[in-house]
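Section 5.1 Outputs to date
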Amino acid sequence: MNKIDVENIKKEIAKRKAANYKWKSGGELSRNEITSKTDSELNALLEKFKNKGKAAAIAEIKKLVDEAFAKYSTDPEDNMIVLGACFYSDDSRDVYEVDSPLDDINFDGFNHDYNKLAYPIGRDYDLSYWEYKAGKQHQGKDDSKYEKLNKTITQKIVSLFSDLGLDSIEKYWADNDDALNELWYGVHGITKDYQIVAFVIRNDGMLCDEASFETFYNSILYKL
């Protein structure tokens, strides 16, 4: 069974409630195998396929997290990968995803006095946000640890969100933007022990909620 079968099954279920549909070739199930089944049997097939896709996504994400820590983590305190971040722009009253969260957020700010939770891989990459803003040359940015991690691993993890039933990072924060502005960012990350988390942190490294990833604006979205 593949995604084409899923499409045909959904059409078959819909057809039984409405008009005929055009059969799509390329699936692993014959038309008779689909049309001869009851609605409950067809829905069971869809659920089975969804669970199979979810299991495959979980296995792939765990593999990618392990690869990220093996290849890119150099600090023993590293405990997560930043997957993306958004801020709320008061000018447009919209939420925007930033290109490089570790360039905009100083996760090591205040010597971690106000952040005991998030120690992402690559937070020390090349020059910090603050050095960059002070006018120092941002050498090697395109070859930075975070850029490599983002291109090879982070984007792959985010692309598997839908298989887990998770919203995109931008949509999640668009629906949960109460704490965001141009200084406070909503961040998605995945921890070393495979928890997908969402939290709010100021650009200088102060967490909105410091107690845990399950308080107020912080959430554990999925435990793999």
